[in-house]
Design brief:
five-stranded parallel sheet, alpha/beta
Length: 147
């Protein structure tokens, strides 16, 4: 009986510890996103749509995974590229992007896009904007997209 209680105690401590870590990780991520949003130019989906109407040379980079793109669709745009956030740094060299390009970054909600926007700036890109609200807001506004 004592062994069973000791085992349950150890297991429960491990579980509560992992939940505590998960909460800390979530808070850390939120803080990183807020810090990133302060470093990049965040725009609304309305501003993004207007910018797309005015600048046909604009490049849209979607940092969602291929699965998310398949599930949610993507903004209808001739110069659209899907480079997932997890592959952004290694794939920049083969992306044909140049640091003077005007780049609009999308994700599902704007969080990963903000982190990607900071990365692009760190790599020397000068004209980067991030769509706050991402594809969720784009779809809500019924803006042109590809399913």
């Amino acid at each position: 009986m004592n062994k069973l209680l000791a085992t349950l105690l150890v297991v429960s401590l491990g579980i509560s510890s992992s939940f505590a870590d998960a909460k800390v990780f979530k808070e850390k991520f939120k803080a990183q996103v807020e810090e990133a949003k302060a470093k990049v130019t965040m725009i609304s989906v309305e501003e993004a749509f207007k910018m797309m109407e005015e600048n046909k040379d604009l490049i849209v980079i979607d940092v969602r995974t291929k699965e998310e793109v398949a599930d949610w669709g993507y903004p209808k745009w001739d110069k659209y590229k899907n480079i997932s956030r997890g592959r952004l740094e290694p794939d920049l060299g083969k992306s044909d992007l140049v640091v003077d390009d005007t780049i609009m970054v999308f994700c599902k909600t704007g969080s990963r896009a903000a982190l990607a926007g900071v990365t692009l700036q760190e790599y020397g890109f000068k004209n980067v904007v991030v769509v706050d609200g991402g594809m969720e807001s784009w779809i809500e506004k019924n803006y042109p997209s590809v399913d």
